[in-house]
Amino acid sequence: MKQSIDELFSLQGKQVLVTGGSRGLGLQMAEVLGDAGATVFLTARSAEDLEQAAAALNARGIITDWEAGDASNPADINRVCAAALMRLGHVDILVNNAGASWGAPAEDYPLEAWDKVMNLNVRSVFLFSQYLAKHSMIPRKQGRIINLASIKGLMGNAEHDDIIAYNASKAAVINMTRALAGEWGEHGITVNALAPGWFPSKMTQGMIQFRGYEKMASRAPLRRLGDDEDLKGATLLFASRAGKHITGQVLAVDGGVSAVGD
Amino acid sequence: MELFDLTGRVAIVTGSSRGIGRAIAERLAEHGARVVISSRKAEACASVADELNTRHGPGTALAVPANISNKADLVALVERSRAEFGRISILICNAASNPYYGPMLGISDEAFRKVLENNVIANHWLVQLVAPEMCAARDGSIVLVSSIGGMLGSATIGAYCLSKAADMQLARNLAVEFGPHNVRVNCIAPGIIRTEFSRALWEDPAVEERVTGLCPLRRLGEPDEVAGIAVMLASRAGQYITGQTLVVDGGDTIV
User: Fold this and answer.
1) Is the domain covering A3-196+231-251 a CATH 3.30.360.10 domain?
2) Which of A112, B38, B107, B245 has the greatest number of C-beta atoms within 10 Å?
3) Model-level pTM?
């Protein structure tokens, strides 16, 4: 590998916190950030899952630490962020990936489900960003925040997905990304969002089984769903020197689904 | 990092003797690609190609001058690139022009046609020349360098902005058309980047300060800050991204 390649996409010496980092897209992003040289700090609800994920990342040669916490609980967010700063000293890159969904027709959508989805997908993104910006990124005049939105935050649903809170929450994440980018740009912090299309994960497995992989893949110009590597390039772009003039943006990584008109 | 490796890949970059195009060509070459340097000026192209060949070894870069408004030039550009380097799997349409400054009410038909032809139709010609081969090989990445001008209204460079909006739509159309053949098409939309093209906006520090005062990152972009995006889109790192426009403007368009 040439030295210059290291330079443009390298995260040597950087420290990242990934929420919902024990599996799925969060783990995929932790992998690429760690592979690029960053020290990784994971958080998720289950200590057991975190221990497994950390072991897998350590086996790749990535220095990994973790702290369990429920991101829908503000006290837990404070505790996890404090633990990360105590053990790492500072955080350069925050990946707000933790999220959840709930399926029900909008007219019958339970209030508890709405609150659960919004508190995790929107409020936790804000609280993690607020804590780490205030206590680490703003004082150090640098930082990168990457929010996991979704193409479901860009459009409604042609079929009966029945995920009104998820749609609303991801649209909120997208405009929160722009607003935070506008507000914190002067502190040298960039804030961007990734909008994945359909990726097989614990959250989407039911939907993929119900609709069928082939049928869903046929809706994407690239004729497949996302895989365990597809989110890595865009993640590293937003996290590395290569992306330092990009802020407030949302990039769909969806095989072209969001570009199709017919 | 293997995800961004372009070893053995062949890239044509138009408008690459200076500015953003040159920065893209340099970074593609650094990541292992063989790059074709093209612009109207033969000497300038040769000098960039020489520099890259010195830096990365002979056979890294080839200079093929071409005027994008001349279809025969573009045919020759593609044929020569193929003859020297083999199959083309990366096309970066970066060359563009802006021959008119003033209101739409005053633009001549000739100037309007020129803008559309250089900034949109020429891209389409190049795509027609390289895409069949990419589709047959099921391997290709096309990047159109658009502009944030294509997302906002303008009272002074309206035709240019219109052409840049057309590039974003061209990328979406082609992404849908070529996606089943595993050929991806995306746009990069830079904001104000410190190049010759934007000289009037940064030559005078007072003007630069006014231009960057409301920009979230409080500064202009540098050509190299566009280049990494092209590397990502051209490589395996961008393999599931198509039909998208990625804005790189320090946040100018989101406030």
Assistant:
1) no
2) B38
3) 0.96
